[in-house]
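Problem: given the chain below (126 residues), write out its structure.
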Amino acid sequence: MHSHSIRIDPADIDFMGHVNNAVYLRWVQDAVIDYWQRIAPSEAVARHLWVALKHEITYRAPAFLDDEVLAEVLATGVQGSRAFFTTLIQRGDTVLAEVKSSWCCIDTDTRRPARIARDLAARFLP
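Solution.
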């Protein structure tokens, strides 16, 4: 599992006084990309980009401006050029949101889907 610290900006707060739901998508994207950049070898990071295909978000509790929030990212599977992740957005022991997402690995030169090598996938999967 990969931990990614989240900073809440005043612009993230909506008219209800809590973090806008759309902001969670940015947090997940930042957390998954950070996970990739920390786990993958530098040559793989240079050769591949990631594009989100699908996010399924279950909101459980609101986040507020002064909250300390953490995203916990877990890779759950790889299939061809796709990778699947579960991300928990948490404030302490409280889960604020659970996000299941699928991503496509893209070759930086061709901008086409790139199959994820087994040795690379092994770095992410439990």
